[in-house]
C-alpha cells in the first residue's frame, strides 16, 4: 500500500532519496543549493510517497517539491519545481496523488495559480498535468541545458489568475471564488 507524507526536514535519508529520485528522472542537474532553496524555505510543500509493504518502507519511492510566493506583488503563485516517481512504481497514480496533495495545500494557503515547466517531449508529464486542468501558456525554446524545449503550464485557481497582472492593482477579488 502506498502512503503519502509531508517531508520531514530532519530526516537526512529522505533528503538523499529525494535527490536520487530527481537526479534519475529530470534532465536538469540540480545543485545541492537548489534542493535546499526549496526544501528549507517551503518544507510544507514537499510530499513523499512510500510503499508500506515494500522491502524498504521508510525509503521514499516518489516525491514532489514545490514553492509559493507573491508574484509581482499582486497574486500568490504556487510552483511545482520537481516531481519524480521510481520507475518500478509508475502508472499507479502516485505522481497524480503527489501533485494533487501539493495543489490542495497551495490552494489552502491562498495561491491564485500554480505554474510549472515540463519538457515538450515528455508526453506522460503533459498528459498528467493537462488532465488535471493545467493549460499550456507558452513554448520556451532551448529552455533546458540539454537544449530541449519546455512548455510553461498554469493551473488557474482563482479569478485573479485570469486577469493580467497590470490590471490587478485596482481589482478586488472574492478569495472564495474559484475558477472551474
TrEMBL record:
Tell me the Gene3D superfamilies matching this sequence: 3.40.630.30
Q: Which GO terms describe its cellular component?
A: NatC complex
Instruction: Keyword check for Transferase, yes or no.
Output: yes
Q: Mind listing the GO molecular function terms for this protein?
A: protein-N-terminal amino-acid acetyltransferase activity
Does Acyltransferase appear among the keywords? yes
Among InterPro entries, the record links this protein to: Acyl_CoA_acyltransferase (IPR016181), GNAT_dom (IPR000182), NAA30-like (IPR044542)
Keyword annotations from UniProtKB, A to Z? Acyltransferase, Transferase
Residue ranges occupied by any N-acetyltransferase domain in the UniProt entry: 2-158
Q: One Pfam family, short name please? A: Acetyltransf_1
Q: Which PANTHER family match?
A: N-ALPHA-ACETYLTRANSFERASE 30
Regarding protein family, the annotation reads: Belongs to the acetyltransferase family. MAK3 subfamily.
Q: What is this protein called?
A: N-alpha-acetyltransferase mak3
Which species does the entry assign this protein to? Zygosaccharomyces mellis
Upper lineage? Eukaryota, Fungi, Dikarya, Ascomycota, Saccharomycotina
